[in-house]
Amino acid sequence: MRTALPAILTALMLAACTSAAPPSVGYSRNLEPIPGSITYGGQPRTKLTKAPVGSIVPHRFRDKFGRQVSETYVIEPDRSLRLISRRIDYDLVTDR
């Protein structure tokens, strides 16, 4: 058993090193807009012409359950918005 343990640990470490990389650098998940998101139902009609490409746009709102939602968008070269992160603040007293 003493000789098998290092072999098992080595195999686990190698498996972790050879796993697939995330599809994009920085943020690995593709978030879908939810009701209240800026891009819910499509891109906004107005183009963000004055903001530089790559600018970060924060957005805060309450969802249908009353939870505070904080989203972050980035401005793409075609002036569309891409949702890159979302944080939902849960109320530990009312959320179960």
Strand arrangement in the largest pleated sheet: 1-2-3
N-to-C order of helices and strands: HEEE
Pick out the low-confidence regions. 17-28
Beta-strand residue fraction:
25-35%
Provide the helix percentage. Answer: 10-25%
Question: What's the shape?
Answer: flat
Based on secondary structure, the structural category is: alpha+beta
The total tally of domains equals 1
Number of helical regions:
1
Q: How much is the average pLDDT?
A: 78
Organism: Sinorhizobium fredii (strain NBRC 101917 / NGR234)
Signal peptide: 1-20
Keywords: Signal
Protein name: Transmembrane protein
Task: Break the fold down into its secondary structure elements and pairings.
Blueprint: H1 4-17, E1 56-62, E2 68-75, E3 81-89
Antiparallel strand pairs: 1-2, 2-3
Protein name: Transmembrane protein
Keywords: Signal
Signal peptide: 1-20
What this model shows, in words?
- This is Transmembrane protein.
- Keywords: Signal.
- This protein has one helix at 4-17; strands at 56-62, 68-75, 81-89.
- With 96 residues, it is of the alpha+beta class.
- A three-stranded antiparallel beta sheet has the order 1-2-3, with no helix packed on it.
- The longest helix has 14 residues, at 4-17.
- It is flat and about 65 Å long.
